[in-house]
Amino acid sequence: MLNLDAETLCETLIAQMRPDVTPDTALVGIHTGGVWLARRLHDALGLTQPLGSIDISFYRDDFKAKGLHGGLKRSDLPFTVDGARVIIVDDVLYTGRTTRAALNELFDFGRPQRVDLAVLVDRGERELPVSPRWCAHQLDRPLPAGQRLQLECEDSGKLNLRLIDA
Fold first, then answer.
1. Where would I find the beta strands (DSSP E) of 31-131?
2. Torsion of CA 159, 40, 109, 76, to 10 degrees
3. Each residue of 13-62: pLDDT tens digit?
């Protein structure tokens, strides 16, 4: 049974990132779990750039096959992307396709100086050459077929990870 404490993992990620960020580092969370996580990181790291968010729905490589899912969110990058040091934040890294889509959308807004990736959990099983600079936990074996990790955020802001059937 997989038992991951999202709050502890969040604190681990903050500690990993703290030496490498400056107040003008820009965080961009991928909707939805990545935005919740980015909000927590942004506050804990004392960043001055406004928090950004990306909905990668139109940038997915399976868009034509699957179409749009419900609950589209607005992408919002309230800072100048050109020349910025940007950290893309996601809750769970799996195949790398979500990260690729986020990079494509980010570059539509400008050309950052540098882009890094921070994730709460790395599932492994990559299909694209994507690797996080910061990762709070890496699974030591693949999840069973048909299961995935889902980050949830309570009204209080507390983060929880659940293993669910996909």
1. 52-54, 85-93, 114-122
2. 70
3. 999 999 999 999 999 999 999 999 999 999 999 999 999 999 998 787 66
Compute the 3-state secondary structure of the chain and give helix, strand, coil in percent, each to the nearest 5. 30, 30, 45
Provide the domain count of the chain.
1
Q: Is 71 within the bounds of a domain?
A: no
User: Taking the CA atoms of the chain, what radius of gyration do you get in angstroms?
Assistant: 15
Burial class (CB in 10 A: 0-12, 13-18, 19+), 144: exposed
Q: Which two tokens stand for residue 84?
A: 């910025």
- Give me the pLDDT at residue 2, please: 78
pLDDT in tens, 59-84: 876 655 555 556 678 899 999 999 99
For the entire predicted model, the pTM comes to 0.93
Nearest to 91 by CA among 46, 43, 152, 145: 152
Q: Which of 137, 133, 60 is nearest to 92 (CA)?
A: 137
Q: H helices of the chain, where?
A: 6-17, 33-45, 63-66, 97-109
Look up the domain containing 41 and give its range: 6-63+77-165
- In a domain, residue 49? The reply is yes
